[in-house]
What does this fold into?
Amino acid sequence: MSDGAEILGVPRIPGPVRGPLSEETRQKCRTLIARYPEPRSALLPILYLIQAEHGFVSREGIREAAGMLDLTPAEVTAVATFYTMYKREPGGKWLISVCTQPPCALRGALNIKKALEDELGIGCGQTDAGNVCSIEEVECLCVCDGAPVVGINYENYEGLDADAVLEIVRTLKAGGTPPAPKRGAVPQPWVAAHEELSGLHGTRDAHVRSTT
Amino acid sequence: MSETKVLTARFGTGADRIDAFVASGGYQAWPKALTMNPADITEMMKTAGLRGRGGAGFPTGVKWGFINRNDAPTYLVCNADEGEPGTFKDRDLMEQDPHQLIEGMAIAAYAIGCTEMYVYIRGEFAYAARQVEQAVGEAYDRGFLGPNVQGSGYGLDMIVHRGAGAYICGEETALLESLEGRRGQPRLRPPFPAQQGLYQRPTVINNVETLACVPHIINNGSEWFRGIGTEKSPGTKIFSISGDVERPGNYEVPFGTPARELIEELAGGVTGGKKLKAWTPGGSSSTPIFGPDKLDTNMDWESVAAAGSLLGTGAIMVFADDACVIRAMARFTHFYAHESCGKCTPCREGTYWLTGMFDRLESGQGREEDLKIMFDVQANIGGRSFCALGDFATAPVISAVKTFEAEAREHIKKKGCPFER
It folds into this structure.
């Protein structure tokens, strides 16, 4: 598959090569495209679906999204690189997000961040050796009443100290599932979490286009 | 003192599900509104004095009044992209009472002739978005949404759309760009969204808390609403209190309640009986942050402005006397540098250089001239960017350095942070 990068000598989009999207994912994309008055509105949801199947926003996914929406791969890439929740490389099964804004920092967030880095032997923005956990430092998650806040696949754990967070991480490393947070649900595995983020199941599509 | 619970009255009662919501008086305002003249609903919001809770305080009825409801299609978009550090009211409203939001949105949509409304929810709010989606499904099942709402002949659909991690999308034109599948960068105005918004159509964008007020005004009347709060800031406000307080949380009180009562009584005062050093009246965009001398400020738009700062989203972050203000400002600066959308050079570059200066200061390598250069950077961002992010990225932190200049100089003199915490 040549995209001219070799000839032009320009850098490739990082990340390993993935195959084409499954027909199932493509069908889901079409459902999303039909939902909106203008197809391009489905781009952010579609990028979540690509991330669900490929683990990150792959260049193959970008090409397919561009094809479905009659955009160029550059236009799709521009969007994919703008938003923090789209990842450019595969990560772990569990994405652990540590907020370090002042309300969390005042209540021990920096200790949690350091403990996680030490325990997993990686820095923020990286994935551990077994591809189980990725850690990231994030901006305010707006759960400041529960500070310090740690997200696992976007479910929030509130008021935990570093030891309690490490206990969860060790459970994850051992192949277990995380405990239920105070609010929200037990974090879903990567694929289910990202399919939910796409909003695929949250809107009554049968109604939407029939009434307008 | 106690809270005045209007928007938060159903919190913790299980009213996130439709049966409990209806049993507690929910979905009475929406069918009632459907029997009203849409223009009268807009007029009611004007006489109630409802103002936008997203930070700017713009009169809601006036915003709706800009729309020609016969110029179909028109759109209503709820801004649920809450991201201001220290703010967590919209998340709570969606998690605990999603039907209240749907009902408010439905009434607003009807008032502006919209048949397809959107809620743009911050991507990281997995639970809040799930709660809203479930409530939307319930509302369809009971005929509060759908092709023929309550047999009225009015059709209304609702689409739940998630963001993907970009604070700037809380800016309304950036939100529209994002909803259209683009990078979330603000648009040039004019044209304003009321003329050309979503898909170039007339559009109203309202904050979650603002829309949550609407059913209560329909049910109880604009005079009732005016009777709460102050003359120019009517109604209640949810204040998100966080940081060094005994009981962080959302507290709903009438506008104009003194900050002292919120911090010392409702939130239980500063943690461990420590002394208060600083607090923000309106999140990280507060300019400037306040010291203890401003505790008796009444929390409404006019009083906070008169005291020299901004009410913003009503996020009160409290810092005890052993917290380092410079470190906090360094964190804010990192936030804005990360969230600058990159469109305008002054904001994109200025926030980057500011993080360098604050990190130097905090790590003990600060230089006397940095304190001067900071003001220079601020002067070169302020008013020179498309949207307010650039102003908010600099004015608050720089004003904090001015207020706590002695603390900043101590960092330079001691070659490090003087605080152990």
